[in-house]
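About this split. The held-out portion is used to measure sequence recovery: a designer receives only the structure tokens and must propose an amino acid at every position. Recovery is the fraction of positions where the proposal matches the reference. Here is one held-out target exactly as it appears in the evaluation file.
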């Protein structure tokens, strides 16, 4: 057991794209770092501090869910200010490192899985194998949302993608893939996760078949593969479809939504960050005003500050003072993806039904008037508006949506901040939607930098 703990401590400090010598120097005794049993590999999956609490925070800092109160802006770190204002030279080393740490750990599991003693425990073996594929695919996907340009089907598939690492051998060649290759690797990993993972699992920090289906739906949504996105959203909903009735929640509570509630399929959070602290930031005024007076999300998600502003309180991790936000996968996303894709495929009845199914649980009892869409454009805009309201402060979902929706001029958005009286902007499809890769990875890994 002591050997296992030493193994976990040591590998937690292994960073991607570092020199072989540095890596070897970090291992005082090779015998101490070789997993022997399935339980050793399970402990890697269950390393919540890495696997479930380090999703990229820059996607949420850079989006328009909120603004930092001007008097608090000076206390932000330089890098936080630069991310917040889309400085073209900003680099977020931590997000890159965490992404590839998780990918490295996943590869380590897969490389050793057939070498350890498993005592014939096929269920545990499959669960660990599926988890490794899920973590690798999910990490590559979330990393791609901040370090590559948005996927534009048939247009930019040969743009720079992410480096693809499928081995724990740190000496394996490293180069950036094409964008299409990145997404092919993501979907391949997630489909393998679907094969091996159980339909449901406990605790919710471990992935399941249901969440793998949902993440695949998200991936295909980004790829504009709407039929496939709808199919995987459906697959998720066949396994898990229970929504919280917001009428059952205490709107006066500082933490109305309990952690680990029935909608959560997989719990993960973005990295803690000062700009997202509820005391330093305020909800975007246009977003706050967009909620209907009978929409309970306005009371559940936000705290009215009594001065015309509001602060976010409705996260799925529950703590109003937390600087980390929930970024996991939940049932409500599956409803929204199926509704949007149905609208795009001109199945307006299904689009109406899925959106109504969600909103009936969000409005005051008896106040919601169900939609009956007859116009595709109106249906799509309505669903996207509701998606905006449902997934605000959801660990970067808004950033994901801005990237893909900006491809359509009719849905494009220019982001704006006012800093010391000066307006700064991020236009649609700007190169800054792909953040710069850390310089050390460019130099040591000999990979190409994102354009500016």
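Reference sequence for scoring:
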């Amino acid at each position: 057991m002591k050997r296992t703990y030493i193994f976990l401590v040591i590998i937690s400090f292994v960073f991607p794209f570092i020199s072989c010598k540095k890596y070897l120097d970090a291992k005082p005794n090779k015998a101490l770092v070789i997993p022997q049993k399935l339980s050793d590999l399970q402990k890697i999956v269950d390393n919540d501090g890495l696997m479930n609490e380090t999703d990229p925070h820059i996607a949420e800092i850079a989006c328009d869910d909120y603004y930092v109160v001007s008097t608090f802006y000076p206390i932000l770190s330089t890098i936080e200010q630069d991310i917040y204002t889309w400085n073209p030279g900003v680099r977020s080393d931590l997000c890159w490192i965490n992404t590839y740490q998780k990918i490295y750990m996943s590869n380590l599991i897969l490389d050793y899985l057939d070498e350890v003693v498993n005592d014939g425990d096929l269920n545990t073996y499959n669960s660990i194998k599926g988890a490794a594929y899920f973590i690798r695919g999910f990490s590559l996907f979330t990393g791609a949302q901040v370090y590559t340009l948005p996927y534009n089907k048939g247009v930019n598939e040969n743009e720079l993608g992410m480096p693809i690492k499928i081995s724990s051998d740190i000496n394996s060649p490293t180069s950036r893939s094409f964008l299409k290759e990145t997404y092919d690797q993501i979907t391949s990993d997630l489909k393998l996760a679907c094969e091996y993972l159980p339909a449901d699992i406990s605790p919710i920090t471990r992935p399941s078949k249901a969440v793998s289906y949902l993440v695949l739906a998200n991936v295909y949504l980004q790829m504009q593969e709407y039929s496939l996105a709808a199919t995987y959203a459906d697959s998720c909903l066949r396994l898990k479809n229970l929504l919280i009735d917001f009428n059952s929640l205490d709107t006066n509570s500082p933490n109305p939504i309990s952690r680990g509630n029935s909608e959560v399929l997989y719990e993960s959070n973005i990295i803690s960050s000062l700009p997202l602290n509820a005391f330093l930031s305020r909800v975007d005024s246009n977003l706050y005003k967009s909620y209907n007076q009978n929409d309970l999300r306005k009371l559940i998600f936000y705290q009215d500050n009594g001065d015309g502003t509001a602060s976010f309180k409705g996260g799925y991790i529950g703590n109003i003072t937390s600087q980390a936000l929930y970024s996991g996968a939940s049932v409500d996303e599956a409803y929204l993806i199926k509704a949007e894709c149905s609208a795009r495929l001109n199945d307006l009845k299904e689009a109406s039904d899925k959106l109504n199914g969600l909103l009936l649980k969000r409005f005051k009892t008896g106040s919601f008037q169900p939609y009956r869409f007859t116009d595709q454009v109106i249906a799509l805009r309505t669903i996207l508006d509701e998606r905006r309201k449902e997934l605000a402060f959801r660990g970067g979902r808004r950033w994901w949506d801005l990237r893909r929706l900006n491809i359509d001029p009719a849905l494009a958005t220019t982001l704006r901040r006012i800093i010391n009286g000066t307006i700064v902007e991020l236009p649609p499809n700007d190169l800054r939607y792909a953040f710069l890769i850390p310089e050390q990875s460019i130099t040591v890994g000999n990979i190409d930098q994102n354009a500016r």
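Annotator remark: The CA atoms of residues 338 and 385 lie 15 Å apart.
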